[in-house]
């Protein structure tokens, strides 16, 4: 009788020992899940802070004034008019520095750097702070534009774009003096260095510029463009550069003009000129000037040819729409798709591969070729080989089309002879003068 309660007590104790262990396991799992959720929240918060830190901070003229006193604008988004207001405010207080860096900023509007003229001395002896017509402003200011996106930048008080495209006489405007201008890793719609004088160099590196104007300017050292693309317009007019004008790994597209200017030297290294180019009244060392004229000849010839081809294609496509349906479809396939009306040899080459590939696949799938013993072939490579031999009209005879597929072989041969003749004509037109 005493043994039975003892056994019962032992069983109850065993159950009690197992129950806390199971509950502890559940508690540990719940804590691990909560820790994982907390860690994920921390990671998301950190990522959001990093993304927010990388976004430019929008500021107004008052905040810009405070930042300009330090000589550096970093990670800001602001209007060009606010920048001008801040510069004028500091200039009136005599607090504007002669060195300014604009780093990782976004500027909506015109960045008028000509207001730095208030901090430099003029050649005349007038007491007024205003810059008048004909003044030659001699300055020591240096500006760095780094890793920024800017709508327009002007180093002078006038726009070369206005002078060039609107035929406005701005020759009486003052010339703003600079020590150096350095643009690096920027996206700029309009970079205008007109009516400026640089005691040092002016450099644009690793940047993308829609329009670049250097007019009525003088540079005592070098004008350097490296790894930079000027997409639409580049104008170098009525300028003097005592040093070299150096283009390294650049791309000048659209419209390019070199006019009434003098250079110590012109160096074009790995530079492509893909648009219309004009060289008028340029003074430079003879061998370098000859290279510039050769580049101008190549650029003008290629650009005019491309433009003529584009207009020709447009005209033919417009007239094609008035043709009957069958004739319109035939011209679309034969003339437009295959060679773009005789202006694209790459399309003809692609047509080669299309005919060979499609015919080879058909012959392979349906076993359309046979050997000399009449055994049908099911090899993809031999089918493609037979298509190439038929396309080039070589006809070795080691394989022949099976009955029922001879019509396809004849068609491939006719297309091959025609497309090879078209390719020779289009290729010669593109590369032979």
How does this structure look, described?
- By secondary structure, the protein is α/β, with parallel strands linked by helices.
- The chain has 2 domains: 57-123 and 134-305; 322-431, Helix Hairpins, CATH 1.10.287.
- The protein has helices spanning 3-54, 61-68, 80-93, 160-165, 286-320, 325-339, 345-365, 380-391, 406-431; strands spanning 57-58, 72-74, 76-79, 99-103, 106-112, 121-122, 137-138, 142-146, 149-154, 176-178, 180-184, 187-192, 196-198, 202-205, 208-215, 218-219, 223-226, 229-237, 240-248, 251-252, 255-269, 272-273, 276-283, 369-371, 376-377, 399-401.
- The strands form 3 sheets. It has a 21-stranded parallel β-sheet that branches.
- Helix 7 crosses helix 8 and helix 7 (345-365) packs antiparallel against helix 9 (406-431).
- The chain is flat, with a radius of gyration of 37 Å.
- Helix proportion range: 40-55%
Assess the beta-strand content as a share of residues: 25-35%
Radius of gyration: 37 Å
Strand runs, count: 26
Poorly predicted runs are 118-136
Principal-axis shape: flat
Helix count from the secondary structure assignment:
9
Derived structural class = alpha/beta
Major pleated sheet = 21 strands, parallel
What is the arithmetic mean of pLDDT? 79
The number of domains is: 2
How far the N terminus sits from the C terminus, by CA atoms, comes to 122 Å
């Amino acid at each position: 009788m005493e043994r039975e309660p003892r056994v019962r007590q032992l069983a109850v104790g065993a159950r009690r020992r197992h129950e806390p262990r199971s509950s502890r396991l559940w508690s540990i799992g719940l804590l691990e899940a909560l820790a994982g959720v907390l860690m994920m929240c921390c990671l998301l918060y950190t990522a959001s802070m990093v993304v927010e830190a990388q976004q430019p901070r929008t500021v107004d003229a008052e905040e810009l004034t405070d930042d300009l006193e330090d000589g550096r604008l970093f990670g800001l988004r602001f209007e060009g008019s606010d920048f001008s207001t801040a510069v004028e405010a500091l200039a009136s207080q005599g607090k504007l520095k002669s060195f300014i860096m604009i780093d990782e900023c976004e500027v909506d509007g015109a960045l008028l750097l000509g207001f730095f003229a208030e901090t430099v001395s003029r050649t005349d002896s007038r007491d007024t702070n205003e810059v008048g017509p004909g003044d030659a402003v001699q300055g020591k200011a240096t500006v760095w534009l780094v890793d920024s996106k800017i709508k327009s930048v002007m180093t002078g008080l006038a726009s070369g774009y206005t002078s060039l495209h609107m035929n406005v006489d701005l020759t009486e405007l003052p010339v703003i003096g600079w020590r150096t201008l350095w643009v690096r890793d920027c996206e700029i719609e309009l970079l205008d260095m007109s009516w400026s004088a640089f005691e040092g160099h002016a450099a644009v590196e690793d940047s993308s510029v829609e329009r670049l104007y250097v007019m009525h300017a003088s540079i005592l050292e070098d004008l350097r463009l490296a790894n930079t693309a000027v997409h639409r317009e580049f104008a170098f007019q009525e300028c003097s550069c005592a040093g070299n004008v150096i283009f390294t790994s650049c791309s000048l597209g659209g419209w390019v003009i070199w006019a009434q200017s003098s250079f110590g030297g012109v160096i074009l290294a790995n530079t492509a000129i893909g648009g219309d180019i004009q060289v008028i009244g340029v003074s430079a060392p003879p061998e370098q000037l000859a290279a510039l004229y050769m580049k101008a000849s190549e650029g003008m010839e290629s650009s005019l040819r491309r433009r003529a081809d584009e207009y020709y294609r447009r005209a033919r496509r417009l007239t094609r729409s008035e043709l009957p349906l069958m004739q319109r479809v035939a011209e679309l396939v034969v003339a437009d798709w295959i060679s773009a009306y005789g202006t694209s040899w790459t399309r003809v080459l692609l047509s080669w591969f299309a005919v060979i590939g499609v015919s080879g696949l058909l012959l392979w799938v349906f076993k359309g070729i046979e050997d000399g013993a009449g055994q049908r072939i099911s090899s993809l490579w031999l089918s493609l080989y037979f298509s190439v031999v038929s396309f080039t009209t070589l006809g070795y005879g080691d394989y022949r089309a099976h009955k029922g597929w001879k019509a396809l072989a004849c068609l491939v041969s006719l297309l091959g002879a025609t497309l090879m003749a078209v390719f020779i004509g289009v290729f010669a037109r593109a590369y032979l003068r």
